[in-house]
Specification:
The chain is built from five helices and eight strands. By secondary structure, the chain is an alpha+beta fold. A hairpin with a 4-residue loop joins strand 1 and strand 2.
């Protein structure tokens, strides 16, 4: 399986710890395979954790009727526990309304942050731009970035789900978190 190989390779490259578990999930019709991956990596003395689920489905391709609702699901919850203090921020895709009336606006994301210098750094992040290029080419990929305070530390939470595995997105997310931790 491509996902297994990718996570094992990322574990080796970043000297991390990978835990894998398999079970089943009920999609309303039958029990199907569910594979969970948990990859923990140390980045710049901060903890980076990927909780990734691959939910196999009984239909290999979508039809125009279901709109992709019955395809395989890939659900990622990423947590980056940062040692140093950074401003709280949120990154999300520009709204459909905003994109319709401002077609020439680049980038395709909005950053909410009270620190103008940090906000500028985020807008200049090559990795963030690469992630949101995928958003433009995939109708269902909509990552949400939040920096929150959790367990006495700043945590960047990145959540998304999609119908296909994309290693480049995961690598860009790791690079983005490395970039922020500097």
């Amino acid at each position: 399986m491509i996902i297994d190989e990718c996570f094992k390779e990322l574990e080796k490259i970043h000297n991390g710890n990978l835990a894998t578990s398999t079970s089943t999930w009920f999609n309303g019709h039958c029990n199907l395979p569910l594979v969970k991956y948990k990859l923990s990596i140390k980045l710049q003395s901060s903890n980076f954790i990927i909780d990734y689920e691959y939910r196999s489905n009984e239909f290999s391709s979508s039809s125009t009727i279901d709109g992709g609702a019955f395809k395989d699901r890939h659900i990622a919850n990423i947590y980056f526990y940062i040692k140093n203090q950074i401003p709280f921020f949120e990154v999300k895709e520009r709204s459909l309304f905003n994109r319709l009336f401002n077609k020439n606006v680049i980038p395709n994301f909005i950053i909410k942050c009270k620190s103008p210098t940090f906000k500028k750094e985020l807008y200049q992040s090559k990795n963030l731009h690469e992630i949101y290029k995928v958003v433009e080419s995939s109708a269902e990929f909509h990552p949400l970035f939040h920096c929150i305070r959790k367990e006495g530390q700043h945590v960047i939470e990145i959540k998304y789900n999609t119908s296909k595995f994309d290693r480049e997105v995961i690598e860009c997310l790791i690079s983005f978190c490395e970039e922020i931790s500097l």
